[in-house]
User: Fold this.
Amino acid sequence: MVSIVIVSHSKKLAEGVKELAEQMSQNKVKIAAAGGLDDESSPIGTDAFKIMEAIELVDSEDGILVLMDIGSAVMNAELATEMLPEEIMKRVLLCEAPLVEGAIAAAAQSMVGANLEAVVKEARRGLQGKQSLIGPQEVETELETPILTNGKEISITVPNKLGLHARPAVRLVEITNKFNNEVSVSVNNKPFVSATSISQVGTLGAKKGDILVFKVKGDEFLEFEKALKQFEFDNFGDTKEDVFKKEETKKTLKVSASNDDCIQGISASKGVAIGKAKVFLNTSISVDEEIVENSLDEISKFQKAIKNIISETEAIKEKTLRLHGKENAEIFNFHLLLLNDNEKLKEVEKLITENHFSASYAWFKVFTNLEDMYKNMSDQYLRERASDIVEIRNKVIAEISGSQEMEITLSEPSILVVNEIGPAQTLSLDIDNVLGIISQKGGETSHATILARSLGIPSITGLENRIDGISNGDIIGVDGTNGIIYLEKNHPEKIKALREEKKVEEDLFKESLSKAKLPALSSDGIEFQILANISSPKEAEKAFANGADGIGLYRTEFLYMNREIPPKEDEQYEIYKQVCENMQGLPITIRTLDVGGDKPIPYLGIPEETNPFLGLRGIRYCLKNKVIFKAQLRALYRISADYNIRVMFPMVGMLEEVIEAKEILAEVRKELDAEHIAYSKEMKIGIMVEVPSVIFILPQLAKHLDFLSIGTNDLTQYLLAMDRESTFLSKHYSALHPAVLNALLKIIATANKEQIDVSLCGELASNPKATALLSALGLRKFSVSGPVIPRVKEAIRVMDVSNNNKIFKDIIACNTLNEVEKMIHI
Amino acid sequence: METIKLSQLITWLEKIAAYMQENKTYLTELDSAIGDADHGFNMERGFQKVIGKIEELKQSKDASVLLKNTGMTLISSIGGASGPLYGTFFLQASMVLKDKNELTLEDLKSSFENGLKGIKSRGRATTGEKTMIDVLEPVVTTLITAVEQNLTISDALTNMLAAAEKGMKSTIDMLATKGRASYLGERSVGHQDPGATSSYFIVKALKESIN
Ligand SMILES: Nc1ncnc2c1ncn2[C@@H]1O[C@H](COP(=O)(O)OP(=O)(O)OP(=O)(O)O)[C@@H](O)[C@H]1O
Ligand SMILES: [Mg+2]
Assistant:
C-alpha cells in the first residue's frame, strides 16, 4: 500500500491531518507526520531530518507520497528525499496537492491498494469535491489523458452472438474499472480507445468472432487478464436465451405480406392484444444553437442536471431490480454509464466554455452526434441503442430547461401508440392498463422492447408514419407475433379472428405451463421437489412459469438495497404478497434480511470490520437491530395468515441465536394478538445451514426448528476457510470438496434421524451433473435458480436413485477434489 | 600564492554567528514586515548550533568536510526557508573543495558559484525576486571578475562586500515573487529582504575574518 507523509510547519496541523487521513483509511494506510521543530521557544518551522525519518518510518515498496504545506516545507521535503538512500528515494513522490484534501483523497485511494500513480492523481483531484459544492470554480483544464497505445497486450474473442452490444460493453467497462490499470482497447485495427469510456467501447462495433485487443499498463495486469478470460468464457454475460429470442424475432420478420390496408411493422414482443388505442405522439425534441456568455453558470446548471438524472435513473434501476429482477435492471446500467461517461461530459463542458453554447445545446449536440453514430452502426443491436441515447438526451434537456417530460398516463386498459418509448418510460407505465405497445421507432432489441417482452406485453415497432391514421379511441388489434396491426373499422373480421386466436394462445400457454409443472420423478419413482431461488416478485413469476414446485430461497435483502431508509412493514407486506400471488399457493421459504459481509447497505449502520464475513452478518445483525428485524417479522406473520410461507434465518451459528430469534417471534405474535391482526400460528421456522459450527449441534437445534436449508456457497467458504472471491484459492474452492461432501452427509443423516425437513440451495444444486450425487447423499429437495429448473427436473427424470446409491457409495471416501470431480464427470 | 586557511574559515563561521546574534532583532523585524518574523531567530539558532560544534569543526580534515558539516548543521536547525537554502549553499560549496586545506581566490569563486547554483535550484528562484539571491548573485559575479583580473583576496572581498550591500539595498524596491513575502504582493515593495540582509552579513563576516 502506498504510504503517506504529512509535512507542515505546525506539529499540531501535521498530526491533525494525519488523524483525519487515518480515519479515512480506517488505519489501513501507513501515515507519518513530520511537523514543526523540536524547539519549544519557536516550534513553528520545518525540519528536513524529521521529514527524512518520517519517510523511512513508513517506507513502503509501493511508494511514499509526501504532502506538505508551503515554503520551506517543500524545500526541506526535497532535501530530505535527496538525503535518503537511493532505493528509497526512487519511490518517494512529492505532491503539490492541497494538504488536507490531498491527504484524505490519497488515503482513500491508497487503502484500496492503488499504485502510487493513481494515489497521486486522486490527491491532485482532492479539491474537486469542494469546488463542485462552492463554485464558481474554474473549469478544469486537466489535459485529456492520451490513449494508451503501448503496454502489455491481451486478446479475447467476442464470443456472444450479438457482439459487444450495450450490455456487454457496460460489463466490460465495469470489469476494467475494477482493476487499477490503464487500459485501451481496439478491434480490427481501429484506433485504440479508452476501455473505461462507455461511449467509446460501445462504438467499437465488435461482432461475434472479432478479436478485441487490449493494451494494459498497471499493477493489476494478471488480475485483469483473468477477469477478461472469465468474461469471454461467460459469453460476455449474455445468456443463450438472448440469442434464442433474437432468432425467434428474426423469423417473424419474414412475414411481410402487405395485407391491403392493415399496417405492417416489426414484431417486437409476441402475443395478441385487442383494445382501444391511446395515442401519444410528440414532436421530436430539437434544441437551437444558443450562445450564453456566463459559461460558469451553464456548467453548474449542466452538472446539476446530470447529477439529478443520475439519481433518478438509479432510483428507477432500483425499482426495476425489486419488481422485475436483475436482468431488466441491467438495462439502466447503460444509461448510468452514459451519464457518467467522462469523455462525453468533458466534450459538453468544452463546448460550453469554449464555444459559449448553452448547456442544453451543447448536450443536445454531443448526444445527437452520438445518436447518429449509433444509428449508422452496421450492427443492428447497436443501432437500436440509439433510442436509449435519445431517452437520456431528452431527459437531461428537460432537466436543464426545467420542463416536464411527456408523461404517459392511462386510465383504462389501452393499446399505447407512441413515436418512441424509452425503457424508463416503459417501466413507469401502469402495466395493468397496457394491453400492447406500438411505436414508430425502436427495434427488436431496443431496451423498451426487451422490457415489453419480459413483461409479456405484445408490441410492434418500426412503423414510421404508417400509424398516423390511428386516432385516440380506435379499436385496434395487435398481432405482435406477426407484427401486424388491424383497425376494427376497416377489418372487423380480422379483429374477431384475433380474439379467437388470443383465446387459443391463452390455452396453449396454460398447457405448456402445466407440462413444465409436472413433478420430478426419477425413473425408479422417487419424487423430488425442485424449488426456486428468487429475489423479486418478477422472478417468482418466472420461477412459476419454469415449473418450480415452490420457492426454496427468497432473498429479501434486495428490498433493502439502493435506498435511504429500510422498507416499512406495509411495503414489505405488499411485495411478499406479490411473490406469494405469483406462486399461486405453492410453498414459499422467505429468508430474513441477510446483510453484512459483501452486502453493504449504508443506512443500516453496519460498522466497518476487519473481517466482515466473520462479523455482524445475517441473524447476528438482526438480533442487534430489533426494530428493523421486527418490521420484517411482522410483515411475514401477516402474510402467513393467507399464504403458505416458512421463515428462515441466515448465518445462524449457535442455539442461543435461535432461542433469541424465537423470543422475538413470540413478542411479535403478542403484539399482533393485541392489535387483532391475523397470522398463522403454524408458520414454520428454520435456518440456513452455512456456519460449520451448526453441524455439530444439529440435534439440539432440531428441537427448536421445523426445517434446515443447506447453503452450499457459504458453507463451503466457511468450512474450507476460503474466501470464495479469492482468485488465488479458486482452484480448491468447491462445494464438491471431500470435506464439504462429508459435512453434507452428516447434516442430511442427522436431519433424517431427527426427522427434520432438509433441503439444499446454492450453486451446487443448480449443477445437473451434481444432481445424481446429491440424490445418493439422501437429498430430495433442491432450490435452484428459475431458468435451470427444467434442466434439473429433466436430469432427475432420467436417473435411477438406487443405482446412484451404488455408484456413489464410496464418494465420501474420496481423497481429493480431483477424485470427486472425476467420479461425477465434471 | 595568497590563500584562505581553514582557521580563517572557522573565524568566518564564528563571526557569522556573532552577527546573527547581534542582529537577531533587526533581521526579525525585517521579516515581520514581509514575512513571519522568524528569520532572526532562525539564523541565530542555526549558527549557534554551528558554534556548538566548532571544536569538532576545527578537526575537519579539509575545507570540504568543514563546510559540509556546517551545511548539515544548518539544515537540521534553521527551520525556515533559509535552512535548506543556506544548508544547500554550504553543502554545494563544499563539493568543489575536496582535499583542500587552503583556498585560493579561484577556489573561493568556484565554491560560492556552486553554492549559489544550489540555492537557485533549491528555491527555483532567480535575481529580482527579492531574495538572498539578489545579494549572492552579484557577489559571485564580482568574484568571477576578481579572478579574471587577478585581484588579491582582500581586494576581491572589498568589492564583494560592496556588491552585497548594493544587492541588499536593491531588494527594497523589489516586488517579492518567491517565499512568504510573495503572499503580500505589492505590499512587499518598500521593505528590505531579511534573507538578503543575512547574506550581506555572511559576506561581511568573510571579509572581516580574512583581513
Ligand atoms: N524560493 C526562494 N529562493 C531563494 N530564497 C528564498 C526563497 N524563499 C525564501 N527565500 C529567502 O528566505 C528568506 C526567509 O527566510 P526565513 O528563514 O524567514 O524563512 P521563512 O520564509 O520563514 O520560511 P518558511 O517557508 O518556513 O515560512 C527570505 O527573506 C528570502 O530571502
Ligand atoms: Mg521567516
